[in-house]
């Protein structure tokens, strides 16, 4: 029986993880559930899964949950960053699902890595913000890192076992690998007229044609910043040069990514667009378990199509690639600015096209000095967020 901590238990990835746990109750236990402030959802999960701990990031939400929980459930409610880091580091914990969206997931995910846990990484921002530090800590502690993002998990499954066992320090050339091909659907605005993009609403941006995701990731998919962040994450996970990474638009979301070998072979991982598949793969690796996902019906798939990305349509993707070229500090700044810009768009404060403009402005203004510690990275992140807010105000007055 594996004891699991679910960071982001009330979100999309957290819900899918708990669905897989429910499919395999004799193999996995939700030992601790972590959420930000969704009290009613957490209460429901506590009643269903009976975790040992329920952690709320928001202290007021923690008090409310404590009042609503029946003592007979035996669930201890915790709050605070230190308590969260202690939870993921506890000796009883085997596996940590890192599914808190955004920079907020960095500290507890890094704590799990430092404790040598088996970490299922769905929070791409951890590597976007602190790739070198993260990989170094993983090597030092002996933690196991398994990629949950459908694209990175697909790449992982297409790699030789020797490369799978050297995540972060892979030698792709020695394995005969020439390119890693990241696929992306292109989101809901792939074929929309370019002049219409500035008028797109949050509801339209969140209506992804294939995947069911939370609002922030849905907007990132619409701008293709999500693919840009995945590009940066892949650079750290698979130790690639930038010329070894390519992005391919694949609207059907059937092929989740590909690995191209020196001899001309291309291995592709395919499946229905359901996050329970990569989650189950990571939970059971190197074994396989039931995920509750319908098998792919090739006769219903029909046609598979592929296109090069249009950077006029997706300037955020180009910005992410440029930030990856500039280095770790640039990717930290870009990630922070994007989180602020997307939140402003979802709140109706800025238009869709302003997301890229704010990201570009912030990336161009900050002095990029090497950040060697978690504290320095978090300070850079905070500075970039303040700059993004000022840029939003400046553009609103222009």
Automatic annotation (TrEMBL):
Single GO molecular function: manganese ion binding
Positions with a binding annotation for NADPH: 10-13, 123, 125, 214
EC number: 1.1.1.267
Binding site for 1-deoxy-D-xylulose 5-phosphate: 124, 150-151, 185, 208, 221, 226-227, 230
Binding site for Mn(2+): 149, 151, 230
Coiled-coil annotated spans: none
Superkingdom of this protein's organism: Bacteria
Reactions this protein catalyses: 2-C-methyl-D-erythritol 4-phosphate + NADP(+) = 1-deoxy-D-xylulose 5-phosphate + NADPH + H(+)
A Gene Ontology biological process term: isopentenyl diphosphate biosynthetic process, methylerythritol 4-phosphate pathway involved in terpenoid biosynthetic process
1-deoxy-D-xylulose 5-phosphate reductoisomerase C-terminal domain residues: 145-238
Annotated ranges, domain DXP reductoisomerase C-terminal: 270-386
Cofactor names: Co(2+); Mg(2+); Mn(2+)
Domain 1-deoxy-D-xylulose 5-phosphate reductoisomerase N-terminal: 4-131
Record's keyword terms, sorted: Isoprene biosynthesis, Magnesium, Manganese, Metal-binding, NADP, Oxidoreductase
Pathway: Isoprenoid biosynthesis; isopentenyl diphosphate biosynthesis via DXP pathway; isopentenyl diphosphate from 1-deoxy-D-xylulose 5-phosphate: step 1/6
Role summary: Catalyzes the NADPH-dependent rearrangement and reduction of 1-deoxy-D-xylulose-5-phosphate (DXP) to 2-C-methyl-D-erythritol 4-phosphate (MEP).
Family indicated by similarity: Belongs to the DXR family.
Name the UniProt record assigns to this protein: 1-deoxy-D-xylulose 5-phosphate reductoisomerase
Recorded name of the encoding gene: ispC
